[in-house]
Amino acid sequence: MEPRIVEKGPIVIAGMDFYGNPFTEKGWSEGTEIGRLWGRFGAFMEANGDRVKNVVDPNVGFEAHCEPAEYGETKNIYVMVGVEVSAIDELPLELCARVFPATTYAVFTFVGNEITSNWPDRIFKEWMPGSGYEEAHKFLLEVYDGDRFKGVDKLAESELDVYVPIRQSR
Asked: What predicted TM-score, i.e. pTM, was given to this entire model?
């Protein structure tokens, strides 16, 4: 499991978010907190997508997991789903935006059943300790390219990229 190492400028995502423990329900389905979040965002974009300006690529969705300082005690995280925008000139009130800093990323590609595997442990407990890298920021980005990710009902045919912000170990 060797990632690609890439440099990215700031990434601005416009979308909807959730704070809490989205992993109380197991699996990948539209019935989980994250599935419902994607459902709300998808319905909004279908009805109002023309109101979201400066979308970089409407065929690519982002799911951001941001770990707050209290995560160790609460297991609560911020989850945001949305699309990348090149600027936030105006944004519908139903949406929020986050700016992810310019950084270096380890980009892992998961295919088929790997998507629903315990890839966080593979990244953070297996790959990272011997990689010469450490986490640069307490977030990660899942990137759902519509040409490569076919949907939760077609995971066997899908690919998912996970961007983990890294820096050289100190």
From this structure: 0.93
